Here is the input.
Amino acid sequence: MPQRIRLFLWVLFRNKLMTNVERCRRHFGHSSTCPVCNTNDESILHVLRDCVVASAVWHRLAPSSLSPEFYTTNLQLWVINNLSSRVVHPEGGMPWPTLFISTLWQLWKNRNDWVFNTIMLPIAAICSRAITWARYYSGVEQHAPPIASLHNHAWDRGIEILQVQSDCKEAIQMLTSPLANVNSSSLVRAIAKLCNRGWSVDLIWIARSSNQAADALVRRADVSAFDTIALHSPPEFLRSLLCHDISNFSFDLV
Ligand SMILES: [Zn+2]
Here is the structure.
């Protein structure tokens, strides 16, 4: 494991990971609430196991041969039990402890990307990254996976002119900044690298009210679904929203 992941594991095992509960305890923050679900206190176990995103990821990745106590033990036991497990992951072919740590790391990174950059990866992308990196850590795969190639459906489909719309102004500004390729977030750097490939990519801010079709799709999305779904023609429920969006058109090229 890379040193920073060992350090992360040590800090979390000591119950010192800087969640909102810990920030409140140290008087750095006023709210201990989880920024993802806005429902529970953001303890370490909440971020890494019990919150809606973490829980969906573990239901996808945790082998059925693991003990049902996986979802109920306290933090220290949870870490010890999983690190001493002899289970080999059926899909990834790597020891469960490696995938367990890799998943913890991806969940923590994802939480921070949400808090600091308002970027939230789909469940499938978190799972896929955790597996890919665990393969690399465990030596099943010799070369580090290039993050930018993991989920690049548009490129894989041979699209040459791509328009990406988002209602998050900060995300668009960050991605279109000349400094995007040296941004502190690996996700931003990876996207900047993708944009610089041999194709034309426009990143556009669009008001959510002008893109009700996308908003409706997001609200209907099943958080436990893991595959990318490509829609080649609009489903019935989207037709009236698409008509609305055509006549309520407002976007900026940043
Ligand atoms: Zn939560």
